[in-house]
Design goal:
The chain is α/β, with parallel strands linked by helices. The protein has helices at 25-35, 47-63, 82-96, 120-148, 168-188, 206-216, 220-229, 240-251; strands at residues 9-13, 39-44, 72-76, 101-104, 151-158, 193-200, 262-265. It is globular.
């Protein structure tokens, strides 16, 4: 049976992850795309973490009895730097000849707060990473995708784009990501380029659990239980794999007639 993204070249930006008990969205996406036949370039500001994800892909391929020596790469890049974003695309094309899938999975929220408490520097930093960085990687990828007459761009958004009242910069940035997605979809449809977003709810990832536990001084078990209780579907958060399977579908030819969509992966939180 043909794998779902067989022969495609994918760049996963934010393929590394912070330490924790579970798998992060970026690492899960990179692993799943590789399992389904894609050549994957793992990109992260933390180069060691990107390389660790690439090593996981190679080990996973060996365990599954498939060759992966030439099907994975890793690089360090800061997506707030336009030159780095151009280098990501150049590196993908130089190594692998083309770029079929771009996954933008970078997002931060440290220091955020409501409008009357949020510091200007924090607002600027969050918007620079969550929105400007996603635009810069997309801007760099579009010319090669136009030349190829096709490509899939997948932006990782959040339910915070439409809900919340405590993290203004993060909420605004993710709402803007959704609009960025529809803009790119509309302006590039005639070139065969699709752009979609995944709007995630509560996920059991290291950034969400260990990050919140560290920031609030609470045990991870307490943080996990409180978040689980707020999810309508089975009272349990999703995982990085849930995000990854949504990204796999949107990246595959199964979604060839889908563009400009924002897919909620949230266990029903968004319809409450």
């Amino acid at each position: 049976m043909t794998k779902r993204v067989e022969g495609k070249i994918a760049v996963v930006v934010g393929a590394g992850q912070s330490p924790g008990e579970t798998i992060g969205n970026g690492r899960a996406i990179a692993l799943l795309l590789a399992r389904e036949g894609a050549t994957v370039l793992c990109v992260d500001k933390n180069g060691e973490s990107a390389q660790e994800t690439a090593s996981h892909i190679s080990s996973d391929a060996v365990a599954r009895g498939t060759a992966a020596a030439a099907s994975v790469g890793a690089m360090t890049a800061d997506i707030t730097n336009a030159a780095d974003c151009a280098r990501i695309v150049h590196d993908a094309r130089s190594r692998f000849g083309r770029l079929d899938i771009l996954v933008n999975n970078v997002g931060i929220g440290t220091g955020d707060g409501p409008a009357h408490r949020l510091e200007e520097a924090v607002f600027d930093r969050i918007l620079a990473v969550n929105l400007k960085g996603m635009w810069l990687t997309t801007k760099a990828a579009i010319p090669i995708m136009r030349d190829q007459a096709g490509g899939a761009i997948i932006n990782i958004s959040s339910l915070s784009a439409s809900q919340g009242a405590f993290r203004m910069a993060y909420e605004v940035s993710k709402a803007a990501v959704n609009r960025l997605t529809t803009h790119v979809a509309t302006s590039n449809a005639k070139y065969g380029i699709r752009a979609n977003a995944i709007m995630m709810g509560f996920m059991d990832t290291p950034m969400a659990i260990e990050g919140v536990a560290k920031a609030t001084g609470r045990p991870t078990a307490e943080v996990r239980a409180k978040r689980d209780a707020q999810v309508p579907l089975r009272r349990r958060m999703g995982t990085g794999w849930d995000t990854a399977y949504a990204a796999l579908f949107l990246a595959s030819d199964e979604a060839q007639f889908i563009t400009g969509e924002t897919l909620r992966v949230d266990g029903g939180m968004g319809i409450q």
